[in-house]
Amino acid sequence: MSEFAAFLGIDWANDKHDLCLLDAMTGQKEFFQLAHKAEVLDAFLRQLRLRYPQQPIAVGVEQARGPLLFALLKYDFLTLYPIHPTTLARYREAFSPSRAKDDPTDAAYAAELLHQHRDRLSAWTPDDATTRTIQLLVEQRRRLVNERTRLTNRLTAALKAYYPQALAWLPEWCTDLACAFLTRWPTLESLQRARPTTIEQFFRSHHSHGALLTQRLSEIKTATPLVTDSAVIAASTLLVRAFVAQLQATLHAISQHEEEIEKLCATHPDFALFTSLPGAGKVFAPRLLAALGTQRERFQDAQALACFSGVAPVIERSGHSCWTRWRYFCPKFLRQTFVEFAGQSIPFCGWARAFYHWQRSKGKGHSAALRALAFKWIRIIWKCWQTKTPYDEARYLAQLRKTNSPLIALLEATTG
Of 84, 194, 262, 369, whose CB neighbour count within 10 A is largest? Predict the structure, then answer.
């Protein structure tokens, strides 16, 4: 007897959704097509609950996160099994070498894969609400940071075409000062028409003063315009104003996300474990907390975490050939978190700096050396997380000396 009364495979689309219900007792399959409406999905699942009262149903979905999982989370009789798209594609090709593909068939394959091989799949167990909120916020913040970079690059390109002096006077574009400056004086002509006292008062109100302010005022007075064509200046001014407005909104959104992340992390019981890591700071401590969560049974050892995050390499063998490559399929943001933290730890951690330079001396590139350092950090972070013990560098170095690690010699050679 199966522990589930039925297996439901779902192929999720934009306008309609195909479902295949496989009954555990009879093995019969039923196909359904639902419109993309919350009310339709809710009515279908309520009927399913009445059909199998007090019995759990396994659901196979072709995504690890997203709107479908969030929508199904409120139904307590469903056990969700995320299926990797590549896994389902290979399973389909095993029985359909022609690679014929159809949405109802994909739903049937998902239900069948779940029925026959669910012991090889992991059920999705959501973390607590605070941790999941932090996970979403840190990912959203990173996307906003990428948007900020995109906007500053486009703004720089626009200014180079008609107003390059602004780039020299305001080298930091991700500030309220730069946005306010360009909003008030989007052209060199408008800036030079302003009184020096007005410009000086503007910079002082944004906490910019001293020798730098004097230099700016002198250069503004004698600056020569790069372009005098009114058509170019008018069009470029409108474009710059649009970029500045978007940049201001993005900077405000980043600030809001950081405030909310800081507030939630202050109440999280595990946050102190990650603030103890050298170089983690306000950015990477929340990201590492989101990466591991609170479910300590999720990763049985550090190797499982390294493989899941994509930091651990993959070894392939065929005949007499053997080669190593990095993992193609993994949570990209998770791998990015560990690798970027490894790079951030180098200025603040002696052994990490020594290990990185050792990897570079072996001929590895910058990215490969960072991944190797991230692999080493994962073992440390996992142990601290499992034992709920903050990181102590003196204790770690003592353990390295106890095991005669070659890293101690490297560290002593670097510091010596």
Answer: 369
State pLDDT tens for residues 106-130.
Answer: 999 999 999 999 888 888 888 899 9
Residue 321 backbone phi and psi in degrees, to 5: -95, 145
Rounded-to-integer distance, Cα 102 and Cα 88, Å: 13
Contact 104, 260 (CB under 8 A): no
Residue 6 belongs to what H/E stretch?
Answer: strand 6-11
Quick: pLDDT tens for 315-337. 888 777 888 777 777 889 999 99
Are the CB atoms for 376 and 355 separated by under 8 Å? yes
| Distance from C-alpha of 105 to C-alpha of 33, rounded to nearest angstrom | 12
Chain-centre distance of CA 403, in angstroms? 36
Q: Give me the residues of the chain with pLDDT under 50, please.
A: 1
Tell me the CA distances in angstroms from 407 to 38, 78, 346, 371, one per residue in order. Answer: 57, 49, 14, 17
Q: Name the β-bridge partners of 80.
A: 59
The percent helix, strand, coil of the chain (3-state, each to 5) is: 60, 10, 30
Crossing angle of helices 85-95 and 103-117, rounded to 10°: 100
**Alpha-carbon distances of 125 from 13, 78, 129, 270, rounded to whole Å:** 24, 11, 12, 19
Cβ 253 vs Cβ 164: under 8 Å: no
The predicted pLDDT at position 171 comes to 74
Q: Cα torsion for 298, 299, 304, 308, to the nearest 10°?
A: 40
Give the CA count within 13 Å in the CB-facing half-sphere of 201.
Answer: 5
Q: Look at residue 302 in the predicted model and tell me its pLDDT.
A: 94
Alpha carbon distance 339, 343 (integer Å): 6
CA–CA separation, 9 and 108 (whole Å): 6
